[in-house]
Amino acid sequence: MIGVAAAASVLASCAVGPNFHQPNPPDTSGYLHPSSDTAPVQPQAQDVQNISPGTELAGEWWQLFHSAQLDEVVRTAIAASPTLVAANATLAGAREEVTVARGALLPSLNATADAQRSGGTGAVRAPGNGGTGGTANLYSIGLSTSYNLDIFGGTRRAVEQQQALADFQRDELAAAYLTLTGSVVNEVLTIASTRLQITTTEDLIASDRKNLALTQRAFDVGIVPRSDVLTADTQLAADLSQLPSLHKQLDQAYDALAVLSGRAPSEWQVQPFDIDQFTPPRDIPLSLPARLVRQRPDVLAAEMQLHAASAAIGVAVAQEFPDISLSASVSREALRAADLFHQFGTPWAVGGSLTQPLFKGGALRAQVRAARDAFKAEAATYQAVVLEALGQVAGDLWALQYDAQILTVDRHSMDVALEALKLQQQSYSVGTTTVLNLIAAERTYAQARLSYVNARVQQFTDSASLLTALGGGWWHDKIEASVH
């Protein structure tokens, strides 16, 4: 027994199966592929956002939009989201499973109590003073302990696996937090942009109605053909058809924001958001690829699943080796319950056991091969998640680059349309142009303004997408909560 204990102490630091090593970060310092193409449009400085590689991302990344109303809505959603409550509870349960697994590393101690009544017939009678006739009572109390030596580390690998799964749930919580904050920001931006699109479309419709009325009068007096009236009416109908879709988009965005904030849509107080309440981030911190894989929740979750798969190999391998355990017990026995504290016997036992699997039809080897195959699958999945993360950041960087160019073009178009409208207004005031030309200029300006608004909103949306793609700075905030 002493020799077994000594061997256990020597091998205590050994565990079968591979030791997990954190995957190496991507061997690249940038995201975008080299391009020899020149920019089709040189954006103005006011439209360009500064990308700062290697700088730290703020925890409350949405504050880069400088909107107190947005900040309030995001905080409300974080505090009331049932998704975060569920993720926190799942994490808490996973950590309890780690405690359960660690319990197998310690000796178990049990208290025992037993009462028996035995008897028989014939010449053989039950012995003892406590017996009456052919029956006897036997009472006992005691302690028993057992300890699995875990020489080959199967239990330790199981604990490692469970810890990795708990860390996976932690990363899933971070992913839920990031998805929630990103979704809230997107819905708020959708509300603000849709409201402005509705206003601009209503301006277009007002111009259409005036144009149709004037064209109808001109037709009535024989100045223009009937086709001009039909064209004006068609334009009015086309613009009118956009309003129901825009109002539907607005109401659905309000409902989605209510759900994200943990409220039923009927209980949500509609808040008007205006696009002028937001400022696009001028300076955007950009984590390098090596840092990205250490802060994106989906990449970290994939890494933890890879870690759990690695530990599972050790668990499977350990099943092929002997299982060695020690046990001991001591008890008091008496024929009467009262004698357990006065007249009792003290049986005790100390022992050890060894179980070595000899034949299980190839099942143990198959379990090891299956565990290794699962690890290879998780390794490939991890690589796919990393590549997807790099691709998402690259796509958002390209989007912001071209957003600046589109903004410059649309602003120029809007300025030109506004200047043309002013000239038409001046000409109309002195009677050198027709009201139809004035209405056409108003319509052109409204369309240019709508295009510029959409470009602004797209820059906001792409900025939010990049900030969430970089991990959203969740590690700065305390997102774990007690659920007990």
What do these coordinates show?
The protein is of the alpha+beta class and 484 residues long. It has one domain (44-109, 153-320, 364-476): Up-down Bundle (Outer membrane efflux proteins (OEP)). It has ten helices and six strands. The strands form two sheets. A four-stranded antiparallel β-sheet has the order 2-3-5-6, with no helix packed on it. It is elongated, with a radius of gyration of 37 Å.
| Lateral strand order in the biggest sheet | 2-3-5-6
CATH T-level fold name: Outer membrane efflux proteins (OEP)
- Structural category is alpha+beta
Query: Which value, in Å, is the CA radius of gyration?
Result: 37 Å
% residues in beta strands = 5-15%
**CATH class categorisation:** Mainly Alpha
Order of helices and strands: HEHHEEHHHEHHEEHH
What proportion of the residues is helical, as a percent range? 55-70%
Described by strand count, sense and barrel closure, the largest sheet is: 4 strands, antiparallel
Number of strands: 6
- Give the overall shape, derived from the CA principal axes: elongated
CATH superfamily placement:
Outer membrane efflux proteins (OEP)
Identify the CATH architecture.
Up-down Bundle
What gap, in angstroms, lies between the N and C termini?
44 Å
Number of helices: 10
Structural domain tally: 1
In the predicted model, the low-confidence regions spanning at least 5 consecutive residues are 1-12
Mean pLDDT: 88
